DNA sequence: GCTTGATCTAGACCTCGCTCTAGATCATAG
DNA sequence: CTATGATCTAGAGCGAGGTCTAGATCAAGC
C-alpha cells in the first residue's frame, strides 16, 4: 500500500473528492452543514480521514442530490441516521417521498423531450426543403 | 367577449401568467433579459399586450426551462429566431444539444430511482422484521 | 533544512433565477 | 368622482448551493 499502512481503508479529502465527484470545498461544506452522519476522523495533524462508511454515505448523498433532493432534506436524513435505530419509518417516508418526486421529474422530462424532438423534426424538415420562412408562426 | 373587443387575441400580463404558469414578475424579467423574440406590444396606457405568438413562445420557454435549459441558452435561441431565417441549422443544433442533455438527465434520474427503490426495500424489510440495527454498515 | 503540494479554518463572494418593494399610473365598477 | 385592483419602472433582495481567498500548517522528498 502506498497511501496507508496502519490507516486501513481511510482516505484523505482529496481522495474522497476523486471518488465521489464532489470538490474538496464541497466536502468541507457538507460537513459544516451537518450532512454527514458522524464527525469525520482526524489525524494527529488535523487532517480529515474518511472511512469507507463515510464514502458510501457520500455516494448516496451524491445520488440523492443528483436527483434533486434539497440539502435540507439530506440533512434531515443524516440526522435521522445519526440518531440511530427507532426512526426507520421516518427514513422510509423521506425516501419514498423523494422517489415520488423523481418519478414526477422523469415524467416531466419525457414530456419535454417529446416537445423538443418534435421541434427538431420541424426544423430538420424545413431545412431539408430549403425553406425556413413562417417557421415560428402561431401554427408552428 | 369580456376582456377584448377590437383587441383580438391579445392578453394582459396577468392572463399570460395564468396561462404559462410564470409569475408576472418572471414575465417582466424574461422580457428585460431578452428572452422574448420580439418586443411586447403596449396599449396607449403603457400596459403590455401579449399576442398568441408570444404566448406560444413562452410555453416553449417553459418547457425548455423545466428541462433545465439555462436562461442564457434560451436567450441565444430567442436571438437566433429574432434574426430571422438563415440560421436554422444553428437553432437545430441548440435544440439537439439540449435534447441530449435531457436524455442524460432522464438516464441519471432512472439510476437514482433504482438506488432509492433499493434503499426503500432494505428499510421496509428491516422494518418488517422489527430489527434495524447495523443498517448503515458498510455492507448495507 | 528546504521546497513543494495538500490540507486546514473562517469567512467573503459568486451565479442563477427569480421575487419583492416603492411609488406612480391606468382602468373599471359603483 | 372615487375606490379598487391591475400594471408600470427601477432597482434591491433572496435562497440555494456551492466556490474561492488568505494565511497558516502539515507531510514528504531531496
* C-alpha Rg of chain A (nearest Å): 23 Å
State mean pLDDT of chain A (0 to 100 scale): 89
Number of domains of chain A: 2
Structural class of chain A: mainly alpha
Multimeric organization? homodimer
Our measurement of the CA-to-CA distance between the termini of chain A, rounded to an integer number of angstroms, reads: 64 Å
The greatest interface between two protein chains, and residues involved on each side, is:
A-B, 46 and 46 residues
CATH architecture of the largest domain in chain A: Orthogonal Bundle
The total of beta strands of chain A comes to 2
Strand composition percent of chain A: under 5%
Please outline the major beta sheet of chain A: 2 strands, antiparallel
Give a written overview of the molecule:
2 copies of one chain form a homodimer. The first copy, chain A, contains 5 helices and 2 strands. With 140 residues, chain A is an all-alpha fold. Chain A has a two-stranded antiparallel sheet. Chains A and B meet through helix 3 and helix 5 of A and helix 3 and helix 5 of B. Chain A binds a DNA duplex (30 and 30 nucleotides) through residues 12-14, 23-26, 28-29, 43, 45-48, 65, 70-72.
